[in-house]
């Protein structure tokens, strides 16, 4: 049994999809499938039920997943200790990390998990627009940076490591009739102005929302966002008919009885990646911390 076999098994168990697991591990899908089958042969037990339509853990696979996770966590802890011992005793190592909006409680979870595994590393957070963030990463002023969506013209010096999809929810006045529904169809919002940031500020987000509206059969009535997200939500809270989109992680941390946050019937999500220089080692501890699953939107009140 090898660690790479366990990493492949855990990735497939988390994604329940060999292709997505391969993307997460930066491997080809045939290599991931081969490692899992080797592990099953060595254990003499089937870990997954496979069909053309789904991949599911068998009862044995579910039991083995806990043990595999413990082994990989021990490996991460050993790597973190080795990194700590290798650091200069006079000064702790520093991870300079570019951040993005909308992480909500996930940022705390990521930092807590990372610093448990790398206690000797001090994390410095740096906020900047995406272009500046990537420029700082390229020239060495940052060690890693969060990025959402595809970034055109980012240069061959960087690689983008996918960590997860960030869900978006709809924000509309709590007194609006649509707020009584558990989820909202985009087409029902066709007549309401959409408060959204300018495309130059966040092209991936604006393109995602406008294309989703087009697929729903309408062109949104665009109105500029009012400064900060808080200002925009305050305007929506007055009851005037309008709407916007908010990262689900932010919505979970926003408590305003005048605004209703509802999932969209057609899911809206943006891929989030960690960007690093190709010349730098893979930030495995940071990636592991980022890939911990936060509460799903529908579990926010559980």
Cα end-to-end separation: 38 Å
CATH superfamily name of the largest domain?
Answer: Periplasmic binding protein-like II
What is the name of the CATH topology of the largest domain? D-Maltodextrin-Binding Protein, domain 2
Query: Which geometry do the CA atoms define?
Result: globular
Strand content: 15-25%
What is the CA-based Rg, rounded? 22 Å
Low-confidence runs of at least 5 consecutive residues:
295-302
Sheet with the most strands, sense and barrel status: 7 strands, mixed
Tally the helices.
10
What is the CATH C-level name of the largest domain? Alpha Beta
| Order of H and E elements | HHHEEHEHEHEEEHEHEHEEH
Describe the protein in words.
- There is one protein chain.
- With 302 residues, this protein is α/β, with parallel strands linked by helices.
- It has 3 domains: 3-84, Arc Repressor Mutant, subunit A; 89-164 and 270-299, D-Maltodextrin-Binding Protein, domain 2 (3-Layer(aba) Sandwich), CATH 3.40.190; 166-269, Periplasmic binding protein-like II (D-Maltodextrin-Binding Protein, domain 2).
- 40% of the residues lie in helices and 22% in strands.
- β1 (48-50) and β2 (55-57) form a beta hairpin.
- α1 crosses α3, α2 packs across α3 (29-43) and α5 (105-117) runs antiparallel to α10.
- The longest helix is centred in the first third of the chain and has 28 residues, at 59-86.
- The two termini are 38 Å apart.
